[in-house]
Amino acid sequence: MEEKELTIEQSFAEIEEILNKLESNEVTLEDSFLLYQSGMQQIKHCNDLMNAVEQKVQMLNSNGELETFEEV
């Protein structure tokens, strides 16, 4: 079964849930490492999504032509 890719909002919700679990006094050290790893994967996913959006953003230049957004 193919896993559905999470939206950025869903990834942020997962990260928040992971943080709540990590703050719990009931989480074991081993589980905290697994939660940390999962959180880092979600953060990478968010960064990848934001980078993809940034590459698609276009703006009008002074001549009214569309240009690809570039970092300042």
List keywords for this structure.
single chain, 72 residues, Exonuc_VII_S, EC 3.1.11.6
Q: How would you summarize the topology of this molecule?
A:
Blueprint lengths: L7 H16 L5 H28 L1 E3 L5 E3 L4
Antiparallel strand pairs: 1-2
Helix pairs in contact: 1-2
Family: Belongs to the XseB family.
Enzyme class: hydrolase
EC number: 3.1.11.6
Instruction: Name the overall outline.
Output: rod-shaped
The proportion of residues in beta strands is 5-15%
Number of helices: 2
Count of separate structural domains: 1
Organism: Roseburia lenta
Subunit structure: Heterooligomer composed of large and small subunits.
Keywords: Cytoplasm, Exonuclease, Hydrolase, Nuclease
Pfam families: Exonuc_VII_S
